Amino acid sequence: MANKRNGTIYLGVTSNLQQRCFQHRNGLIDGFTKQYGCKLLVWYQRFENLHDARRREVQMKSWKRLWKLREIEQMNPHWADLYETLV
């Protein structure tokens, strides 16, 4: 999730991406995303199991910001909101 192109980025894991994005977009979850206005789904990766997803989350949270930006732009060069593609 991001608040704008090259803006604040939030990285997390969920078993229901569509529901979680809805919650973030509508400010239903207190915390980082609400505080920084991270409402745009600009990147996601699917996994077969939660264990692998969490391992990837930990890995990516240790990355430098530039690496995360590269990952986003490979999938979504215009930083379009991908939420509508989930429906």
Concise synopsis of the structure shown:
The chain is mainly alpha-helical and 87 residues long. It has 4 helices and no strands. The two termini are 17 Å apart.
How confident overall, as mean pLDDT? 96
* Principal-axis shape: globular
Between the first and last Cα atoms, what is the distance in angstroms?
A: 17 Å
Helix content: 40-55%
Tally of contiguous helical segments: 4
Instruction: Please write the string of helix (H) and strand (E) elements.
Output: HHHH
Largest sheet geometry: none
Q: Tell how many strands the DSSP assignment holds.
A: 0
Total number of domains: 1
Q: Over all CA atoms, what is the radius of gyration?
A: 12 Å
Low-confidence stretches: none
Structural class category: mainly alpha
Q: What portion of the residues fall into strands of 2 or more residues?
A: under 5%
Describe the fold and architecture.
This protein is mostly helical and 87 residues long. The protein has one domain. Helix content is 43%, strand content 0%. The two termini are 17 Å apart. The mean pLDDT is 96.
